[in-house]
Amino acid sequence: MLSSWLIAAAILLGLLCERLTITWVTRSPRGCAWIRRTPLLHPNGISMLRLPMGLVSIALAHQGWWETATLFFAFWMISDLTDGTIARNCDLATESGKWLDPLSDKFMYFPALAYFALPTSVRLPLPALWVTAFLLIDAFGQASRLIIQKKAANYFGKAKTAFVTIVLTCTAMDQLEPLWFMSERFVYVMMVSATLLAFMSVYCRIVPDAWYANSLTLANFLCGLGALWSVHTAHPLRAFVLVFVGQFFDLFDGRLARIFGSTRHGPVFDDIADGTSFGLAIGYLILAQVRLGLSQGPADLAAGVAWGLALFYVACVFYRLYRFLRPTQAVAPGLFQGMPSPAGAMMAGSSVLLLAERWPWAAVAMVVLTGGLMVSTLRYRHFAQRMWPVLPRSVKLIVCILLLIFVDVALAHKLYTQFFSLLCFAMALTYGVYGLDPDTYLPGRRRGAASAPPAEPE
After folding, report:
1. Cβ(351)–Cβ(370) under 8 Å?
2. Fewer CB within 10 Å, N side or C side of the chain?
3. Which pTM does this prediction carry?
4. Span 4-206: which CATH code?
């Protein structure tokens, strides 16, 4: 019997070989000509071949051949990347392919989801309620392609497919030998995340383009409200994770507004959401954690320091948001005057989670430093405009998926508080240093404002 780690290594090696081979073949005119002469290698041909393979995978698993079933399923899911690369590089994209490709994905993972939701199918069955919700939402999304113009998959759809593949593969490998990170709660959280991605994929396909940015702003605002409630109910890690998730919504709402347009009050909504998630929620977290850390001393001192620090931080965030709309200095597009509030939220929130219990005064110092950086005149580069766009699309998708999985791990395993907080602190600290505009410390290097991309909401 092959171990789960050997199977994982084989899948990753197969993915690497597929990417290198198909990229090399499709970059060559001779390779594309050969593919055009071979109907089975056309994107639609590959999609047609994939239609029965999900049922074959489950038939193999039902017979107890879990190694074969897992590798077989992974091979055909990897082929989903193959047909997309061929369609783009060999100019073989068709209108029918825009609905046939996602349909073949559903024929692949729908049988596995339904089978793994059965109580006796696997060691850790998938939650039947969320599997049902996912299947209904995803089926509705496929049916919507028949009546709407936006038939191609969006980024939420691509992330959903990759995420479901990871969930199913991990569940299958867990049958060979229990994986250390697999638990009933982890499987539940992963399935909830996949369902939310499916909903966002359908939502972005059926709503008008101008609503995209406000939709993500609303999601950020809801994360802030959830974080406030989590702090109130003594769940600081959950609160911080929600703010962390809200950062992704905030990262893309301005970019979508620039690409697809937005409503008239979009910038105001964005500031309200940022103030809730990165201001009030983190301020409440600071109040609770610092007060708890200083509880061994005089009660009045603990309460006074905690309240003063929280109010100071919230005031810095709101001043930072106000100054973003009305800067006190001329700042080139793509630059911020002072550390952006999302980065400040990550630095302050992770600091109090890491330090407040053992070294409360170190946590106090870090929050004061964070507030000072936000209201300072230091110039920081816009992550979404100047740092994120230079990354390849595949890298962006992988990063988002890995971070979402990490968030799920943090939610599923309550012992991950320190590790998750340390990661966020390292990310915030890296941005705090690397995100500084070179003109801040190299005045001779001046970027032309005309060559910079236009500004967008933070």
Report:
1. yes
2. N
3. 0.66
4. 1.20.120.1760
- In 348-434, the DSSP E strands lie at 379-381
Q: Contact 364/309 with Cβ under 8 angstroms? A: yes
Classify the C-alpha dihedral 156-158-162-164 as positive or negative: positive
Could you tell me where in the chain the CATH 1.20.120.1760 domains are found?
Answer: 4-206
Q: Which two tokens stand for residue 139?
A: 């089926």
Locate all alpha helices (DSSP H) within 149-211, ordered by sequence: 155-176, 184-206
**What is the rounded distance in angstroms from the CA atom of residue 91 to the CA atom of residue 174?**
40
Looking at the DSSP bridge assignments, the partners of residue 380 are 336, 436
Answer for the pair 400, 157: CB distance below 8 angstroms, yes or no: no
Amino acid at 104: S
Task: Report DSSP state, residue 376.
Answer: S
Instruction: Identify residue 277 by its one-letter amino acid code.
Output: S
8 Å CB contact between 286 and 233: no
Mean pLDDT per 10-residue segment, the chain (458 residues): 79 91 91 90 91 94 92 92 89 84 92 93 92 94 77 74 89 86 86 89 78 83 94 91 87 72 74 92 94 86 92 94 80 82 92 90 94 90 75 74 71 65 85 79 47 42
SS3 331: coil
The Cα 450–Cα 336 span in angstroms is 16
